[in-house]
TrEMBL record:
This is Glycogen debranching enzyme glucanotransferase domain-containing protein. InterPro entries: AGL_glucanoTrfase (IPR032792). Residues 25-66 form the Glycogen debranching enzyme glucanotransferase domain. It holds the Pfam family hDGE_amylase.
């Protein structure tokens, strides 16, 4: 579920261990990359990301979002 209150970024330190402390093979990563600015407004992201879940991707990459200039 998308958290509508999330306004920051989250950085996760990379490791080759899962939460149980077991090693995992990086060649097993199935990655879907999204161009964040094309996902629309934040409350709509969950439905658009459903394809990654349905496609059994185990990692999602989002391109960075940058704040614009208000005029």
């Amino acid at each position: 579920m998308v958290d509508p209150d999330f306004t920051g970024t989250q950085v996760v330190k990379g490791t080759s261990e899962n939460s149980c402390g077991k090693k995992w093979d990086l060649s097993g990563v199935i990655l879907q990359s999204y161009l964040s600015k094309n996902l629309g407004i934040f409350p709509e992201w969950e439905s658009r990301l459903q394809t990654a879940m349905d496609g059994c991707y185990n990692m999602i990459h989002f391109t960075p979002l940058q704040g614009g200039v208000r005029r």
